[in-house]
Amino acid sequence: MTDIYIYMMIGDTDSPVIYTASLFRHNVGHSMAMSGASAPEIAYILGQSSYVVADRYIAATPELADIREAALGRNPVFKNMMALMLTGNLVHSSEWEGRNVAGSIGGQLHYHLGGCNYEEDICPFAQGRGCYGCLYFKPFIDGNHKKVFLSLNDEIQNVRDVADDAGILNHPLLKELVRRKQHVNQVMARIEMANVRRAI
């Protein structure tokens, strides 16, 4: 099968931009989804008999992700509810008398994060990284949560690099690491809100 090329002149340049037909179709589908076209409209323009691909273009638009995030993530009541469901009460490290949490994240040992209220002596979860989504975790108000957040960023970047090198579009670890990072971010937001309330 031979490739069909589409030549486009951009601005006043003399050199054309070359698109393959499949890349052009992809750009058309994506652009239509970004501008709010429906799945039947996108499928019709792309010459497809089902809406499967059109639905994927619509689901992948950043605008839709922004709408979801605005509806759920930016709502302060929702944020507070989620934060309370994900971890235990905040505590100052000087007041904690139980087990302390430590773990390796992003190739670095992290400690002074919080306490663990789990009734067994050995935690069955990934210590450190799994704590931020655990009800038994009591985050320290004066904990090193920002360092954990930055280490998770490093891990996400490393996984992205591996995924790019291997040609993997959706690496299974990325979603989990991003979710862990959101948990850490929610704990930091709770601590910030608690500090603001104390200052008032």
Structure description:
- With 200 residues, this protein is mostly helical.
- The chain is 52% helix and 11% strand.
- It has two domains: 1-74, no CATH class; 80-199, no CATH class.
- The chain has helices at 21-34, 39-46, 52-59, 62-73, 76-86, 145-166, 172-199; strands at residues 5-8, 17-20, 99-100, 103-105, 108-110, 114-116, 137-139.
- The strands form three sheets. A three-stranded antiparallel β-sheet has the order 3-6-7, with no helix packed on it. Strands 1-2 form a two-stranded antiparallel sheet.
- Helix 2 (39-46) packs across helix 3 (52-59), helix 5 crosses helix 7 (172-199) and helix 6 packs antiparallel against helix 7 (172-199).
- The termini are far apart.
What is the domain total for the residues? 2
The major pleated sheet works out as: 3 strands, antiparallel
Counting DSSP H or I runs of 4 or more residues, the number of helices is: 7
How do the helices and strands follow one another from N- to C-terminus? EEHHHHHEEEEEHH
Give the helix level as a range of percent. Answer: 40-55%
In whole angstroms, how far apart are the ends? Answer: 71 Å
Organism: Escherichia coli
Protein name: Phage integrase
Topology:
Elements: E1 5-8, E2 17-20, H1 21-34, H2 39-46, H3 52-59, H4 62-73, H5 76-86, E3 99-100, E4 103-105, E5 108-110, E6 114-116, E7 137-139, H6 145-166, H7 172-199
Antiparallel strand pairs: 1-2, 3-6, 4-5, 6-7
Helix pairs in contact: 1-2, 2-3, 5-7, 6-7
Protein name: Phage integrase
